[in-house]
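ugh ok fine here u go
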Amino acid sequence: MQKTLTGLWAGIRHAANPGSLDFLPVSERTEDHATMALGVAEKLGDAIEKARYLVAIELLIAAQAIDLRDLDRNRLGAGARIAYERVRAAIPALDVDRPLGPDIDRIEALVRAGDFNAP
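structure:
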């Protein structure tokens, strides 16, 4: 998942570059200039989508780390415990090799739905 995570971060950083500061004339030498706001809004939407996937991957990694270290769930903070329980309610621990794309998609859908928002 590290390569996917790195690719997502690169996409977010790329989208964070400012839109063009040049206004382009759109009506034959009159003072009518086209704003770049639509392009900026599209880049923001793309960055938000990538960020949701990034959060989903981080949640999966954190839950797996808790399982591998066999941590006492009662010693987790309240938010971490709730996040762990929500991940594990949707995705079992990784104990055999399997494609991770469906797991990531399932957790991303929960992130998008707001299931990990603070109460």
